[in-house]
Structure prediction request, 342 residues.
Amino acid sequence: MERSAIIKVSGSKLLKVAVRSQGGTIEGVRITGDFFVYPEEALELLEAKLKGRMVQDVGKILKDEVKSLNITIIGFKLEQLISMIEGCSR
Amino acid sequence: MEQLRVIKFVTGTPWYNMALDEAIARRVGSGESPPTLRLYGWSPEAVSIGFFQEVREEVDLEFCRRRGIELVRRLTGGGAVVHSRDELTYSLAVGEGDLMIPRDVQESYGRICAPIVSSLRRLGVDASFRPVNDIEVSGRKISGSAQTRRFGAVLQHGTILLDLDYTLLSALKVSAEKLKGKGASTAGDRIKTLRQILGRPIGHQEMGRIVVEEFSRTFCCEAVQGDASHEEEIGAHALEGRYRSQEWLFRR
Prediction:
């Protein structure tokens, strides 16, 4: 099952999330929009880290990765991304 | 920085423009080239999309094909931008350790946009920086910037709207979500050009001279006219293929 969500976040930035999931397991996530992430390569790494993981673990996985990779996000809050991915997986 | 190399205004293709920005940033980041400000224009007209954007979601591909508008994906994040011939684009590349650039990314946007704001003010335009990355006049965008930090460098490039053929904006699929809360019903309502404000056309050279002076003043450095080095031109040539490729354009 694939579901997507789009929200307008801080300022006028858009965050779009598409999630493919099956029975609570995430098969794939794609995060797109006009935000900024530093380092840029980290976004695809975060998407890859969620593959095959349970929906309830999304928050912890993303928070841990953002911290350990020292990722800076400008344009949305990590919590917004987490709740969008969770919402799309249910 | 004590000196800022200034590469004079030239008009380039979308792919060359992005490739030369990257080639310069790579050389600046490795310490082989000095801090650099480049001014350029676009021909053919183009839409650039942000590093994290999905092309089909943002761009009316059929409209672009009909109008001969080319497409390029930037190395920088941010949104889709229409680049007409009446745009002046700046790009600044400095070493990541340069003390003039705040380590905090949001702060650095403000810092690098400051000379653009003061350039506009010198012309009597009541411009102000609006975080994250815009410069506005009366709530309308006149300039937008995007920054990446790679290769040991900070690269920020951005637009200054001298004038605009508004029909080009149909190239962008601006979602209803994006316009929400902006008091605007179309993308055109959100932007403003220098020609509209000044009531006269202003050329790339005239605006470019002011921008160079303001960068030099803001960063307390001497602006030195220069060219892209042979190595940077070779680098740009090598990188241009990637920017032209469908794989790069449609990678998201």
Observations:
- The interface with chain A takes residues 50-54, 57, 75-80, 105-106, 130-133, 146-150, 175, 177-178, 180-182, 252 of chain B (CB under 8 Å).
- Residues 105-122 of chain B form the longest helix (18 residues).
